[in-house]
Amino acid sequence: MKKGIYLLTSLLIVGSMLVSACSSNNSSSNSASNNKPNSSNTEAAPAVGLSEPFTATDLTKLPAVAQKRTDTIIVGLTDPSGAFTPYFQQSGYDGNVSSLLYASLVNVDEKGLPVPELAESWDVSEDGLTYTFHLRPDLKFSDGSPLTAEDVAFTWTVLHDKAYDGDSQIPALKIKGGLDYKEGKATSIEGIKVIDPQTISATLEQPNATAVTMLGSNVLSKAYYGKDYKFGQLDYIKKLHANPLGDGPYKLEKFIPGQEVRFVANEYYFKGKPATEKFIYKTTEGDVWQFLETGEVDYASFSATTENIDKLKAMGFVNIIPYTPSTYGFLQVNLEHEQLKDKAVRQALTYGLDRKSIYVDATQGAGSVANIPVSPISWAYTEEGINPYNYDPEKAKELLDGAGWVVGTDGIREKDGKKLSIHFLGSKNSNTDIFIAVAKENFADLGIKFEPEVFADFNSLVSKVEGGDYDLVSFSTPMLTDPADGILQFVDGEIKGYDNPKFKELYDKGLATTDIEERKKIYAEIYQLLNDELPVIFTSYKKTVYAYNGRIENVTVSPYIGLAGSLPSWSLK
């Protein structure tokens, strides 16, 4: 297992603020971004109770501590590791920090389509192989030094170094000469051309529909991060994590592990200095509701249940925005375990698990069941030819019988002298409690021994997964910009034991064209394949609500990049 459950592509842009990582059923103060693992047990979508933004009704109820803040906004976040350099992050929470420190060449709009950021425009050659980016004039890093095409070239190059072990998918684009550089056969990458200080191009060996957003991610300063660069030696960059040099809306002032991450506005930010001088990620563990109610934080996110929405409205001093992120939840299946190699067993587990009770009913209707690896908000989403796997224990038993698993005298199925058991891993929260309660009953009815293990620390859970000691583990994806993002784990080796040539053929085909209608057809075929084979068990789509201090203005939310796009414009009235 790599550093991230997902090695996503265009998600490296902007650093999305996903609102459900490691959350409880009732609330989620945490933001998780980019291409790193997130706890699942998701709350799902679509929600009930709030279809339009809600405006605070009585700001006099705002706690005094929040009223007194004039130049600082505070948001809750799970404690990051401190690796704040893009492409080298250890968690999605590191990504939330770097999303304020770094801008990207390209952003995405509310439909997930690329829009200019540091690059004011780009061109694509007729053969779809060469991408030329035109940078805005007079770009600067946060120390005032110039940002030019040389910095972009350095960034793309260092990601091809043989010592690079991060999650960037830029090497997977197959830039011409990239492999030769990685293998030490060349001292530069043939396909990367610096045309002038504001213009740079990359030529690929084959077309890739995600190339614009993938190449258009964060830029590292060559003068700062490349000063000590020697091919094959990247450990020196780790020493720079604590003192990042970016080009985003904020600069890092101080990181106090277990307490907070402090930022100050970047006067050199290309869109202009942010309206609010200071920003703080509060990383102290505690009750999210209490933090919001007492004014200790200005923002929090919650499962979009009727109960939560009514409670938030009753506060009087918060604005509320309903939000459906471009994510999906899933149960990762250990395909290296013999009993789970059988598709019939995986299908039986899906039929035999009452997902509606777990992800919809238990969240007061704030959710929907997922059956494919793409969010309903995506242009690629379809239900055509998709098996919904409605709860059907008799169908599940039939499949298990057919697979040779016979109910023993103790009520547990067995085959070839081995009992059928499921070792489940989950993060400690109320969602996990609900899952375990329902799954234990469901699987007992099927004749399956269910053995749950719960982790208070998410990193400990990931370590357990890396060791392979599990059958099912609950995760959710980061935000998915392109449909290719949601299926990458099935082709890059992240899901060990899944190796289907037909899927790989379709995956490559889906990236080889930029024609949306053609891609829709290809992904529809991919979804039918994965829906049948179930290399993972898809669980849910989630719906959340953002609740924030009614004094904060200019807050907008994108299903693909969350709050990150509007955050530099936030101001306190």
TrEMBL record:
- According to the UniProt record, where is the region Disordered? 26-46
Q: What InterPro entries does this protein's entry cite?
A: Peptide/Ni-bd (IPR030678), SBP_5 (IPR039424), SBP_5_dom (IPR000914)
Quote the Pfam families the UniProt record gives: SBP_bac_5 (PF00496)
- How far does the signal peptide extend, from start to end residue? 1-21
List the biased-composition ranges (Low complexity): 26-41
* UniProtKB keywords: Signal
Q: Which residues form the Solute-binding protein family domain?
A: 114-488
Tell me the protein's name: ABC transporter substrate-binding protein
Q: Which organism is it from?
A: Paenibacillus segetis
